[in-house]
Specification:
Length: 420
Amino acid sequence: MDTAMSVVEAGRMFAAPAAYTDETRLHEGLARLRRESPVHRVEVPGYTPFWALTRHADVLAVERDHDLWLSAPRPRLRTADLDAAMEARGARGAGFRTIVHMDGPEHRALRAVAADWFRPRAMRAMEARVRELARRHVDRMAEHDGACDFARQVAAHYPLYVILSLLGLPESDFPRMLRLTQELFGQHDEDTGRGGSPQGHTSVLEDLFAYFHDLTARRRARPTGDLASAIANARVDGRLLDDELAISYYVLIATAGHDTTSSTIAGGLEALIRHPAELRRLRDDPALLPLAVEEMIRWVSPVKEFMRTASADALVGGVRIGKGESVLLSYPSANRDEDVFADPSRFDAGRDPNRHLGFGAGVHHCLGAVLARTEIRALFAELVPRLSSVGLDGEPAWTATTFVGGLKRLPVRYTLDGRS
C-alpha cells in the first residue's frame, strides 16, 4: 500500500507540531514539496493562510531582501488564537517585542545594544569559561554509570549555563530559567508545555517578564559589568530602553540563546551514533571538528521557521505573492535541498562547502551564531576523544513544535575514559 503523503498533506505539516516528532516522515514530505510545490499555499483551520518556501534559493532570497520582506507583523507561525492572546497582552501594556519582530532602523538600533557581546573578539574572551563548562558537563557523564539521557542531563544544561553566565545571573536561578524556556518553546508538547493553550503560553511570558523586570531594576541601580547590565542601561536616541523592550531582550537571549544550541548538541550526538563511521572519522581527525559543527547545525536545523510578510506584490520561485501575504521560511527543508547539498540526507562530518541556513541570513542573521559554534565545538572537543563507545539506550524523542526544538530525550549508553 502506498503510504506516501500528498502535497497538500505535506503542506499541512508546517502547522502540525507533531510532524516535527517524526524526522523521517517530515523530511519525506519536505522533499516532495521541493520537487512538486516549492512555493506552497497552506490553508489550515485556525491559522491565517500562508505560503511555505522549501527551497534554499527562495528562502535565501527572501532573507536578503529585508525591504520587501518584513518580520512585522508576523515574525513566526502562530495560531489565530495565540495571535489574539498576544495582541491582548500588548494592549495591557506588556508587549513582547524583540529584534526578531523588528525591521529597518528600529531593528538596527536594538540589535546594536548587544552586538558587541557576541562578536568574535568577545567570544574569545568567553572561551575559557565555555571550555570549563564543557569539561564539567562531560565529567558529569562519567558519574552516571555509563548511561544517561544526554538531551536532558547534558545538552539542556550546558548551553544554559553559558548564556546565563554571560548575562550574569546566579546559578541558583538556572533551573528556573531552564523550565521556563522549555515551557516557552515546547508549548505544544505534552512533556514541556504549560497546558498547550494560548493562556498557558501567555502565563509563561508573564513569569519571564516578572523575573526580568526585577533584574532590570537591580542592574540599573547597581550595574555589574555583565550583559544584563549592558541591556538594562542601554540608550537608544539618548533614552533608556523602556521596560518592555529591555525585558524582551533578556527573554530572547536567555531562551533562544540556549535552546537552539542544546537541540544541536543533542541532535549532533544522535547523528554521530547513527553514523559511526563519521564518529570514527572525527575521532581520528580532530581538525574536522569545525566542519562537523556546521554539519550538525545543518542536520538538526533547530529553528524550524521564521515568517516574513510582503510589503509589496512580489514574485517568489515564479509564484506571485500579494502585498500583505506571509511566507514561511522552512529551514529544515532549505538545509536538505538537493540543488545545494550533495547527498543531503547523509550526515557528513567533513562536508565542505556547507551553505546551510541554520543561522538565517541577511540583517536577521543569528546574533549568537559565534557563541553557538564556540559552545558546540567545545563540548564535542571534550567529549569525542573521551568516548570509547556510545550507542542508543532506548528510543530518542523529539519535541512537538512548529518553531524551535529538537530532541527532548536521547537515552545513551557509553564508555568514557575507560569507565562504563
